[in-house]
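I have been asked to look over a protein record a colleague put together. The record follows directly below this note.
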Amino acid sequence: MNNLVFASKNKGKITEVIEIFRPKSINILSLLGLDFPIIIENGLTFEANAKIKAETVFDALRVPVISDDSGLELEQLDGNPGVFSARYAGEYASDHENNEKLLNDLKNFGEPHFAKYVCAAVYYDGVNYFSAFGEIKGKIVEKGRGINGFGYDPYFIPVGYELTMAELNLNEKNIISHRAKAFKELIKIIINRNLYEK
């Protein structure tokens, strides 16, 4: 196996994941540029959705696949938006629309708005299936800042930081983020089980 396919067309995610795997010299391909149908993510957990994506892409391409599902959980909103983070304001909602709905839903709650980003990352090659998890705690602020990142990043300040995730550069984000934590654990599994050959 010389490549891993990342089951995503999200440019922000793809950039992050390529950089996470780069130190291990693991080559990551993605679904960008492929005429791949939209995958219906109807799982009840982040891991379930990640597994659906990995299995769907593997069945189509017959190559080892990594995937993830991630989202934001708010204490004051009983864990929402959770697995619906990417479509919080509707099936094809933009980041702006999702953020607008989130801030509107938080209007009746006082600050701080404690939150956490959660990620489930999985590997699937038709025989082997492995998963790993990561999270980062923080809070949501009412005025977005920063142009890096995507999703809720302009409104999320990690614990111990004064900058939002969107104000951090890619290297800084990939040290602390939920996605980096999950995929770094997954990399350990892939390497320890000899699932990748350079």
